[in-house]
Design brief:
Order of helices and strands: HHHHEEEHEHHHHEH
Radius of gyration: 23 Å
Number of helices: 10
Structural class: alpha/beta
Length: about 230
């Protein structure tokens, strides 16, 4: 049975104490010499109740929903800045993935993808794969409309797109996109920079962090609470 979010937080906070690492170290130390006949009493003494496990499971589910909520709210709050006078929205795709629609946003003037990613400047292969997929799918789209990829900061993404990572590596986890890419280009492009250099004029890459200061500050601070999974693909 699920627990109300406030009760889940209370249970998890009670179990974790002031510092979860210290709490777990204490439990580990107290567990030395534990036997079957006193295991139940030990769990009770340590606060390791089934209700806490239920609370943790519920919070994990809610965190997944938070990522989707961030993506949806980010797109919605960008609209007043993105839309030009007279421009009309034809559809929005706010959930995880594009829910059967090709892009996050299509208007009578443009198509757009949004990535609210917490870039850290390291290897970040999953984030890079996601950005390349979006850039490629937009660049190769037959729509005559303007194409935009909106990111929380462009420095790391542009460095990746202009870099030497291999196309095979970037596409290795997405067979559908890999097959599409090779069907169109064969072995013409071996490095990300080769493809990006040839197609960069097709997609405008713009920074939205100035419009979403809350998310922009989280990125600058390296806050893992920003969207960093691929839930929005």
């Amino acid at each position: 049975m699920s627990v109300e979010p406030t009760e889940s937080l209370r249970l998890l906070s009670k179990f974790a104490g002031g510092d979860l690492t210290e709490t777990l170290c204490r439990i580990e130390a107290n567990a030395r010499g534990l036997t079957a006949d006193c295991a139940a009493a030990f769990l009770n003494d340590q606060g390791a109740e089934r209700a806490v496990l239920t609370a943790a499971t519920d919070m994990k589910r809610l965190v997944g929903q938070i990522n989707v909520t961030i993506h949806a709210l980010g797109i919605l709050l960008c609209l007043p800045h993105v839309l030009e006078d007279g421009e009309r929205v034809e559809y929005l795709s706010l959930g995880a993935g594009n829910t059967g629609r090709p892009f996050d946003l299509e208007t009578d003037h443009r198509v757009a993808e949004f990535k609210f990613i917490n870039w850290r400047g390291g290897p970040e292969s999953i984030r890079q794969n996601s950005v390349f997929k979006d850039f490629f799918m937009m660049a190769e789209s037959s729509t005559p409309k303007r194409k935009y990829l909106y990111l929380l900061g462009t420095e790391h993404a542009l460095k990746f797109l202009g870099g030497g990572r291999s196309i095979e590596s970037v596409l290795s986890r997405n067979e559908k996109v890999r097959v599409l890419f090779r069907s169109r280009f064969g072995d013409r492009y071996t490095k990300v920079r080769n493809y990006y250099s040839a197609q960069r004029h097709m997609v405008a890459i713009e920074d939205v962090s100035g419009w979403l200061s809350e998310l922009g500050e989280a990125v600058l601070a390296g806050d893992p609470g920003s969207e960093q999974s691929e839930t929005s693909e």
